[in-house]
Amino acid sequence: MQNTRLRAGYASGAALSRALTLDDSYVRKFESLERQPPRDFAERCDALMNTGGQLVEAWDDVDWSAAPDHPDWFKFFAGLEARALQVREYSTDRVSGLLQIPAYTRALFRFAKPHDDNEKIERGVAARIGRQARFLVARDGPFLVVVLDEAVIRQRVGGPLVMRDQLQHLLDVPKRYPNIVIQVTPFALGEKTGATGGFTLLELPDGERWAYSESMSRGHAVSDPTTIEKHIRAYDRLRAEALSAQDSARFITSVKRELVNVTPTSPIAVNWRPPRDWKTASYSQGDGGQCIEAAPGSAAVEGVVPVRDSKDRSGPELGFSPDAWSAFVAGIRAGEFGTV
C-alpha cells in the first residue's frame, strides 16, 4: 500500500486520506496494521491511484482473521516499521526478525516461552514472519540494511539443520531483492564493532526518524534528533568497518560449509559435540600430508564417526555411521580401493 501511494504522488498517508475525504489518520492506521480496512476502501484507492484493481486483489489475498500476535511493548515499534521507507539494523545476538526463516523463529520462541502451547507459538512465528512481506517484494521495497555480528552467524539456533537453512536464506535474499543489503562484522574487528548492543534506525515518510533498541522485556524507541544523529554516526562507522556485502556472502558461505553434510537422520544433527581424539592416517607421517583424520571413538557417544581433511582442520567435517566406517576401513585393508 505505502509503495503504491508514493508512486501515485501522495507523500504521506495523511495526503491520501485527504484526497479520499477521510480523517488524516485513516490511511496511516491501515499501513501500520492498526486496523483492518474495508474492501471498499481498497476499491476507492484503486480508482484514485489508477492501479488497475491491484489493491482489491491484495485485499482479497489477506487473511484478515489472522491478526499479528505481537507483545504489547513491541506493537509501537511494529507500527513504525510498517511505515518505514528505510530500516538499518545492527544485530549482535540473533538474526534480524526481518530475515529469519520460520524454523529459526520457532526455535527461539520454544526456548524463550517453554510454557506456551504450539498454537500460541505458531501465532508468534506468523506475526514475526509477516513483518517481512513488505520488504520481500520484487521491486520498490523499503531499503533494508542489516549488519550481523559474527556471533549471529555462528550460533546454531535450532540445531545444525535449521542453521544451515537460515544461512542459505541470508545468501538468497540479497540476490533476489536489491533493496536488501546484508553485511557481517567479524570477530577480528574487536572494539571497532562498538561497545553498544544492537539497535535499529528507521526513516519514515515526511522525514520522521526513530532509533529503537530492546532490553530483556521491553522496547525503547526514541526520536530525539541529537540521539538519532549519534546512532547514525555509530552505524555509518560500523558499516565502514564491516565486510562488504560480497565478502560477507563469502563469509556466510564458509560458515555454512561446516553444516552441509548434516542430514535429518544423522545423529550428528541431533547430538553433535566436537570430537577430541582425532587420529591421523599413518600414511601422513605426522605432517598432515594428503590424508584424512577420523575420530572413531566418538561413535560411542554420538553414534557417528567424524572425518576431516588433515590439511584443513578448521574446515567441514563429514559424519559416517559406525557400520559404514568399519566397512570402509575393511575395504582399505583388503586392497579394494587400490593406491595412488
Q: What profile does the largest beta sheet have?
A: 6 strands, mixed
Q: Tally of extended strands?
A: 10
Amount of helix: 40-55%
Query: Class of the largest domain, according to the CATH hierarchy?
Result: Alpha Beta
How many domains in all?
3
SSE class: alpha+beta
Q: Strand content of the residues, in percent?
A: 5-15%
- Name the quaternary structure: single chain
Shape: elongated
Sheet with most strands: strand arrangement: 3-2-1-4-5-6
CATH fold-level topology of the largest domain: Endonuclease, Chain A
Q: What is the number of helices?
A: 15
Level-2 CATH architecture of the largest domain? 2-Layer Sandwich
Describe the structure.
With 340 residues, the protein is an alpha+beta fold. It folds into three domains: 2-61; 72-259, Endonuclease, Chain A; 268-333, no CATH class. 43% of the residues lie in helices and 14% in strands. The chain has helices spanning 2-7, 13-19, 26-31, 39-49, 54-61, 72-83, 102-112, 118-130, 150-154, 160-176, 225-241, 245-256, 268-271, 299-302, 322-333; strands spanning 86-91, 143-149, 180-185, 199-203, 209-214, 219-222, 279-280, 292-294, 305-309, 318-320. The strands form two sheets. It has a six-stranded mixed sheet, with helices on both faces. A hairpin with an 8-residue loop joins strand 9 (305-309) and strand 10 (318-320). Helix 4 (39-49) runs antiparallel to helix 5 (54-61), helix 7 (102-112) crosses helix 8 (118-130) and helix 10 packs antiparallel against helix 12 (245-256). The longest helix is centred in the middle third of the chain and has 17 residues, at 160-176. 25% of the residues are buried. Residues 264-272 have low confidence and may be disordered.
